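Page 42, continued from yesterday. The earlier attempt failed because a stray header line got pasted into the input along with the sequence. Redoing it now with the clean sequence only.
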Amino acid sequence: MSALRRKLGDEYQVVSTSASGAGLPPPRAAPRGKRQRFVDKNGRCNVQHGNLGGETSRYLSDLFTTLVDLKWRWNLFIFILTYTVAWLFMASMWWVIAYMRGDLNKAHDDSYTPCVANVYNFPSAFLFFIETEATIGYGYRYITDKCPEGIILFLFQSILGSIVDAFLIGCMFIKMSQPKKRAETLMFSEHAAISMRDGKLTLMFRVGNLRNSHMVSAQIRCKLLKSRQTPEGEFLPLDQLELDVGFSTGADQLFLVSPLTICHVIDSKSPFYELSQRSMQTEQFEIVVILEGIVETTGMTCQARTSYTEDEVLWGHRFFPVISLEEGFFKVDYSQFHATFEVPTPPYSVKEQEEMLLMSSPLIAPAVSNSKERNSSVECLDGLDEVGTKLPSKLQKITGREDFPKKLLRMSSTTSEKAYSMGDLPMKLQRISSVPGNSEEKLGSKTTKMMSDPMSQSVAELPPKLQKLSGGGRMEGNLPPKLRKMNSDRFT
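This time it went through. Structure tokens are written below.
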């Protein structure tokens, strides 16, 4: 333990979640009632089909699959019963032929040729059938050429026996070769853990392969089962949501040689986006894990399943490392397969962390609604009014026009990225308002120049001849009457 603390630090505490592991169990909330699971830890689904009615005939239409899906005790019972009934039936047929021909009374007459030699009662007829069916052939009982009905029955017996053997033996072979037992050598951790990995909140669990033979094309999938209600009012008791465990990056394709930790990154696309340590005490969900692959020895597809309820998800824990490098090989210590240890993890959900990061960030998003822009524009105008009261009387008369605030409000509402301060005012007005020591004459001249700029720009837009006549923006007293009238109409 001291070596572990030197390696991981004093703030980490090892917690074993297995029944036989060392350490104290992690602190949990008050125990609740027994949780009804949809999928057991061993992979069995707790689903029973009832009130099928006439749909039970579908099972008989697929009789082979029905027999394979039955439990072993029912398979053995059907296997023994089928052979027993078939043997008794065929033995009875041979006994009936011997009885109808009178072979039972003349069995010991050497001058009489029976249908089947040495068949004089039912046990002898049964032994003859077994010798024929099993191809034992002791040579004491045999069919003669004086019995055509016996030859026909022998052909029927051979065909029927081949069909029964193929069906029952094939069914038993398929059931014995099913990879369900192979799935028992695929391990899942008893608990899942939520902690930080690579700077992101991550849901993790561990899988392992106990055999040296590999699982070819192993792939893992996760489903989240949670009840919810749609906006239309429909209640879904077992709504299935997909948990991304690396489908987009190919991380769901496993090279399952040593134990692997499967990760689900909790982001805005995850169903656990709003899950926090506190909300886990009231949430009810179940994570179903499905591991599929091809058994290397048999080539058959194998599927292993397990599930984790909300009580089996540990917040702020991480799995203990189980792989160590020895002399020339890597050693896996399965005694620590289920063990976890606590790590510093924020108790907030990813959504809450993003909101806190956004509030603490000095950069504010530039996108603002139009109503906020207008309110800020009005506040800016109020600030301008306060500044205008400190300006000289001539400048107050200029800025006190009714159309000036409206134009400024219209200009401020066309952009969504303004910082509402004096820095957004025109440069000339900034210069005027930022120099409190100027005299009234200087401010008046600057204001007159600012107000005469549109006039000079309008004259600059005239043709060269008219600009010469207008004197480059001087007074219009020297213009002809017609040009003076045209110019006055243009400016008005």
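Notes: The chain has a mean pLDDT of 75.
Reminder to self: strip header lines before submitting.
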